[in-house]
Amino acid sequence: MSAPLLQVNDLKKHFRLHSGLLGAGAATVYAVDGVSFSIEKGETLALVGESGCGKSTVGRCILRLTDITGGQVVLDGRRIDDLSIGALRPLRRRIQVVFQDPFSSLNPRLKVRDILAEPMRNFGLAKSGADLEAKIARLMDAVRLPRDAVDRWPHEFSGGQRQRIGIARALAAEPDLIVCDEAVSALDVSVKAQIVNLLQDLQQELGLALLFISHDLAIVEHMTRRVAVMYLGKIVELGAKRQIFAAPKHPYTQALLSAVPVPEPGAARKRIILQGDVPSPINPPSGCRFHTRCPYVFDRCRTQEPPLRPTENGHLAACHLHDLPAAQNPLAAVAAA
Amino acid sequence: MPLLEVENLQTHFRTPDGVNRAVDGVSFHVEEGETLAVVGESGCGKSVTANSILRLVPEPPGKIAGSIRFRGVDLLKLSEREMRSIRGNDISMIFQEPMTSLNPVLTVGRQLGETLRLHQRLGRREADERAVEMLRLVGIPEAKRRLDEYPHQMSGGMRQRVMIAIALSCRPKLLLADEPTTALDVTIQAQILDLMKDLKTKIGAAIVLITHDLGIVAEVAERVMVMYAGRKVEEAAVGLLYRNPRHPYTQGLFGAVPKLGSSLSGTQTKLAEIPGVVPSLKQRIEGCVFAGRCAQATELCRQVAPALELKAPGHLAACHYAPKEALAA
């Protein structure tokens, strides 16, 4: 078996908050605190969670938009988190990004042609001017935009069209992996469907791997094969999509799924409503970070942190409930139902 | 008599490059204690409709025409002073952004009390008492201490609870909720929706819920109207509309949303796309507003705007080709 395309080992990113003179009383935000996963070539992994869980920070760490505090990022068997910026530069081509907001992620002073040409020039991907033009035209075709739109400015496009330009820009570098950071969240329902379909088509055509960061569980279920659920800087559950959506092995995933409104009037569903808000990552709760909101909390959860470990069929979960006999495990009951 | 009756509402904005017909001839009614959902994508005119009801549209450049009768009184004919006694009192509103809709420099207690003192003529102490009561009602712990806090000291969910407390403090007859949970996380959204359902039974206000989320509609609304490009294109009871959407746009919306659990039932398919984009509202649209994106559109659709007509008992749709059931006379 070959090495996965991307491997993230025990990734940590802490932000120091400066407060007061000489950093007195400075606090630390544990935005990402020990996250590990891998992505195979051509695969989609979703990273889901609520705001502030650290999912976007993970994406930024992989892209090296921010330096990491600890752990490793390994691309094709080669560590890239400790490379100098110069040594990293040629490798940047292989991991590209599509951001959430199609209005602020395109340079308003560049025409579409230049937006798409820039990555190719940077990485020397075009042999000649004619080659560059041909590649730009192919990119426009790939994202289903008219070829003559290359001479227009970003502001002349709608949100959905801009997101297509953003995707074309990511493709221009001929990457192996694209980090989609809430890439469809800001779009309207009908446009969202267009972009989701486009991403899926492109992935099949080009054999791209996607790290799909999102809070929208229905879209995630539609898009991906494997899902990692994050809560307060940690992955609490990781498994194949079917496992996660049919039989979640972590109470947080369970609550998250049950909280999504379903477009079926009168659908009889048992809903788990979590009490309270997500605690602050500045001072995360002791033991299991979810224990303050968990409906099944017991003593051990408050003191001892559950490790992320296999439950069945390679499905990982970080919950003490799995140490209990099946009869006492409320998650097992859900799986059976 | 319905609680609210909106007839041929037209809210237009004058802009440097033409008149924007944000809402163009929309009629609907809301019964006492009922929840009506208004669904549509950005720019369809759903928020402008709500703002027009409370006359929160700046005039000029805006202009509201038609009639909006609340308990028989046309709100468009009232003076600004009379209107003020209705806003926040008989009709109140919750906005999408709990971050920007509270005043950052006033304590939560001040903001809650202001409504009560102004409309209910309560004294400072009585207003404080009612404010505590309201905060408890919306599920804010340690309500008394919270009165002295500023909005920035609260989380998004808490702030939205405060907004709801303010909106309900004068026991309004009608609550306009404009995307009240869109800015919130799913688990917090579940809390707020639950709270709204609970309070509706306690206070008995009618709700006009504006949203783009078909899941939320199914959970809280009784009736739903679908808007597109400033017009109402379909309206029916929630069960009826979800079982059998008749307008191609509504059908398109349903096809474009992935359903949770679809991977389990094996029904997962490609999402249906609605091709193209919403038309500009700055030109007068001849014919059906959806014709440009509709797969079934014909010459007739491009030339003649379909009237909103009864396609089945209690089911309105504006489409030439939507099937019509025999209506019992």
Outline the structure in words.
- The complex is a heterodimer of chains A (337) and B (329).
- With 337 residues, chain A is of the alpha/beta class.
- In chain A, 32% of the residues lie in helices and 22% in strands.
- The longest helix of chain A has 18 residues, at 189-206.
- Chain A is globular.
- Chain B has 329 residues and is of the alpha/beta class.
- Chain B is 33% helix and 23% strand.
- Chain B has helices at residues 46-53, 80-86, 108-120, 124-137, 143-146, 156-168, 186-203, 214-220, 238-243, 248-256, 262-265, 299-303, and strands at residues 4-15, 18-30, 35-39, 62-70, 73-74, 91-94, 174-178, 206-211, 223-228, 231-237, 309-312, 315-317.
- The mean pLDDT of chain B is 87.
Dominant shape of chain A: globular
Order of helices and strands of chain A: EEEHEEHEHHHEHEHEEHHHEEH
- Please mark out the parts of chain A with pLDDT under 50 across 5 or more consecutive residues, or reply none: none
In round numbers, the mean pLDDT of chain B is: 87
Shape of chain B: globular
Q: How many strands, which pairing sense, and closed or not: the largest β-sheet of chain B?
A: 8 strands, mixed
Number of strands of chain B: 12
Write down the overall mean pLDDT of chain A: 88
- Structural class given helices, strands, pairing of chain A? alpha/beta
Q: How many H/I helices of chain A?
A: 11
Rg of chain B (CA only): 21 Å
Give the low-confidence spans of chain B. none
Largest interface: A-B, 44 and 46 residues
Q: What's the gyration radius of chain A in Å?
A: 21 Å
The structural class of chain B is alpha/beta
Largest beta sheet: strand ordering of chain B:
6-7-8-3-9-10-12-11
Strand content range of chain B: 15-25%
Q: Report the end-to-end length of chain B measured between terminal Cα atoms.
A: 23 Å
- Biggest sheet architecture of chain A: 8 strands, mixed
